[in-house]
Design a protein that fits this description.
globular, Rhomboid-like fold, 3-stranded antiparallel sheet, two-stranded antiparallel sheet, Rhomboid_protease_S54, Peptidase_S54_rhomboid_dom
Length: 244
């Protein structure tokens, strides 16, 4: 499933979203300028290699121990054009409405904390992994978790490719995001104990989503406006958290 757009208009200018996309773009453009060997070193240094934190002694990582910087920098690295575009597009669709209820500064902090929580759960299940973790998807999953709670009756125009036939459906956000989370969770469970082959950090996605749900009440602002909807998904006005 790939989201095309959602039905919730923004109220405030999403400066935080612009900042995050801009930083991701700058880092990705830097990656594109690096020769292959330099890029591999760059990703291993500024991405997160779990084994570097848990089992550095006596390994190649003993000379390059895990530092604090990579815990944050990994969120701005991407493994290719598709990885970058999918992440930034998903962020663009869901994040502006979350920034609406938080404000820019709180949203940026929320985003980073979701990314850290996502990484923490991934590392808990992959302590021996030599595969670097990189990408914004864990933090974006936190945004999706908050959206799941705030706008369950919103509509998400979704592309579902069936072999070579593109199918477009307007799905309720609660269904789209709920299915997405279930896929991440069960994929993570099925990957436990499996041989490491790289690919998708399922536990990071699940961890970020849960973090977004749990952190939302701490970061929303009572005076910020957001669009509210009834149980049928019809917009009934603009509200503030203090109105509830």
């Amino acid at each position: 499933m790939f989201p095309i757009r959602d039905s919730i208009p923004r109220i405030h200018t999403p400066w935080g979203v612009y900042i995050i996309i801009g930083l991701n773009l700058l880092v990705f453009l830097l990656e594109l300028t690096l020769p292959h060997d330099a890029l591999v070193g760059f990703i291993h240094l500024y991405g997160v290699v779990p084994a570097r934190y848990f089992h550095a002694q006596g390994t190649i990582w003993e000379q390059y121990p895990g530092g604090i910087l990579s815990l944050f920098s990994y969120m701005f690295l991407h493994g290719g054009w598709m990885h970058f575009i999918v992440n930034m597009w998903t962020l663009w669709i869901f994040a502006d409405n979350i920034e609406d209820v938080m404000g820019t500064v709180r949203f940026l902090l929320f985003y980073v904390l979701c990314g850290l929580c996502a990484l923490g759960l991934h590392m808990a299940f992959n302590q021996h992994s030599m595969m670097p973790v990189l990408g914004a998807s864990g933090a974006i999953a936190g945004v999706m978790g908050a959206y799941f709670m705030l706008y369950p009756h919103a509509k998400v125009l979704t592309l579902i490719p069936i072999i070579i036939i593109p199918l477009f459906l307007d799905l309720p956000a609660v269904l789209f995001l709920g299915l997405w989370f279930i896929i991440q969770l069960f994929s993570g469970i099925s990957s436990v104990g499996a041989a490491e082959t790289g690919g998708i950090a399922w536990w990071a996605h699940a961890g970020g989503f849960i973090a977004g749900i749990l952190l939302l009440p701490l970061f929303r602002q009572s005076k910020r406006c957001y669009f509210c909807y009834n149980s049928r998904g019809k917009r009934i006005g603009v509200a503030r958290w203090s109105d509830h």
